[in-house]
Structure formats: structure tokens, C-alpha cells
Amino acid sequence: MAIRLIRELGDPVLTKKAKLVKEMTPRLAQLITDMKETMYEANGVGLAAPQVGVLKRIVVIDISEEQNEPHILVNPEIIEQDGEQCGMEGCLSVPGKQGQVTRPQHVICRALNENMEEIELEGEDLLARAICHELDHLDGVVYVEKVEGELQDVEALEEEPEEDGE
Ligand code: ZN
After folding, report:
1. Ligand 1 centroid – CA 41 distance (Å)
2. Edge to edge, what strands does the sheet with 58-61 contain?
3. I need a labelling partner for 74 at 20 to 30 A (CA). Which of 107, 123, 130, 163 fits?
4. Is the dihedral of CA 149, 95, 70, 32 positive or negative?
5. H/E/C letters for each residue in 110-147?
């Protein structure tokens, strides 16, 4: 396993559309392992392959406190969404910042897992937000484009309970 370098806002790779995964290869399996490791190391709740410089449609998400419930989504698509939630969002590619973004309250995502088997992941609240945020990365969209109002410094809110990045 290896920690990969997380690309930050301004890196052109974050604005490009990622390509569909056609088959699982040892190289991509290693990428998924490294993405999990990198996400946990950075205390994030999600990471998309373009954030480590790879333009493939792969996302890892883990919103659990213990960081032991990873969801691996290959070629994910949102097939249903409803409701609305408005809350603060952060991103490992935009360190030290957060901003308010409106997302669906509930989503159903269809994807392949690391064995290229079809799966569905249903999420509400933070999980729905994380799914939407990470899938945006696959289309070259960083959440700062969707922030309502100003991006804020996380340091300025130090008194508040700490929010993990996505
Ligand atoms: Zn992000």
C-alpha cells in the first residue's frame, strides 16, 4: 500500500472528465487500495481517482467513525435522487476551506465494485452528500464551483466541532 499525492485546486487534472473503467487490472486494484489508504491518512470521507491524478471513474467513500466501512464505486451513476440538504462541505483537494453547498437529501447510486460486480449504494445525509461530491470529481467539477456565498477558512471556525474533508 502507498499514500498517493493529493492534487490541489489549480491542478488541471481536477477539471478533466474521467474515463470509464473497462476492466479491473492489477494496476487499478492497487490504485483502489492506495486511494483507501490515502483517504484514511488524510482523515477524509471520500476520494476520487482524479484527486490522485488518475482520470478513471473510481471513487472511495467511508463516512464511518472507525474508517472501516469503505464503499468502492467504479463507474458510478446516480440513478435516483430526492430531497434537499444544505450544509458545509470540504474537500481534500481544497485544504483548510469549507463552504455551503446544497445537495440531494437521498440518492441511489449504481456502480461496480472492485470485482466489477454491479452494486447499488443508497445514501442519506452525509453519505448522499459524499456520493454527489465524489461523483462530481469524475466530471471535473470541484465543489467550490457550487458554493453558495463565500468559501470559508476552516481555522476561523476552530471553536466548532471539526468537519472532515471529502
Ligand atoms: Zn473533493
Report:
1. 15
2. 46-48, 58-61, 71-82, 106-112, 118-124
3. 163
4. positive
5. EEECCCCCEEEEEEEHHHHHHHHHHHHHHCCCCHHHHC
CA 9 → CA 22, 27, 38, 93, 140, distances in Å?
28, 26, 17, 6, 11
Question: Can 134 be counted among the known catalytic residues?
Answer: yes
45 CA → ligand 1 middle, Å: 9
Give the Å distance between the CA of 136 and the centre of ligand 1. 8
3-class DSSP state of 40:
helix
- Ordered by where they begin, the domains of the chain are 12-157 (3.90.45.10)
